[in-house]
Amino acid sequence: MKKLINSPETLVNEMLEGLVKAYPNKLKRVEGFDVIIRNDDIKKDKVALVSGGGSGHEPAHAGYVGYGMLDAAVAGAVFTSPTPDQVYQAIKSSNANKGVLLIIKNYTGDILNFEMAQDMASMEGIEVDSVVVNDDVAVEDSLYTAGRRGVAGTVFVHKIAGAKAEMGASLQEVKNTALKVIKNVRTMGMAISPCIVPVAGKSNFSLNEDEMEIGIGIHGEPGVYRDKLKPVDQIVDTLTDKILNDIQINKDEQVAVMINGMGATPEMELLVINNHLNDILTNKGIKIYKTFVGNFMTSIEMGGFSISILKLDDELKQLLDHKADTPGLKVF
């Protein structure tokens, strides 16, 4: 195992320290906790957005802390849910007297720990609500979930709910907007190489040079099925068909698309993927309003990608265009 780290035990701490040192005017760390919060003037009377999960998905989630997106993010160990006390500190530190919305990916550990933290904060009089993201169309139940997994579509929830909060909406209004995104976003992913969790020192699966996994998650788990590696246009066809069979998008409707690298996929290849996805949607009469290409929710150094498609209406388009200024995503 080759990793550019000092030790698995210090990895998350040193990563978070490096992040706040890279953006000292925008981010700060809650002392004694693996929690990153905004270092600008957090608006009072603004709904705060909190998310997080296991580390290894960078820039998610701490990279989305900043204007127009999250107010706080909590980092667990690699692929391990953060503890309730860490999540509680994120809630407490970001609360701006208008309530806190937790954005939780649908993994059993995340849901349990975030809900415990929500109860802890509620007992202190903080108004807290939550939404669960389950955008992955690959699988209904998995090693980590009951129901569908929350994956890269979560970034759209951060972006759009974050914009709604910046506009001064109430907690219920921000929650309703987040739920609208969750209802209208779908994701499907694949891998050509696995990742290695530092403390484990080995991958959860192995692939021959001529093999790929279809329907992978973001925690190093294998896909729904294994197939022979094909030209990437055929892979994009497979993933897109699965998404479009799960959500009805009519001719002339508008969408946002996200081509998300899993950590080790060159931008060159992501752009080739986007080229064919654009052709598929255009040929179906589906109009692409906005495209995002890059690493948005990774799985350490996994080779592969996911496609997310978000069906838009006028409100979602306006919120998607709203300014965001975070290390991981900027919209101006």
UniProtKB/TrEMBL annotation:
Gene Ontology CC terms: cytosol
EC number: 2.7.1.-
Top-level EC class: transferase
Pfam family, one: Dak1
Keywords in alphabetical order: ATP-binding, Kinase, Nucleotide-binding, Transferase
Domain (DhaK): residue spans on this chain: 7-329
Protein name: Dihydroxyacetone kinase subunit DhaK
Originating species: Mycoplasma mycoides subsp. capri
Lineage of the organism: Bacteria, Bacillati, Mycoplasmatota, Mollicutes, Mycoplasmataceae
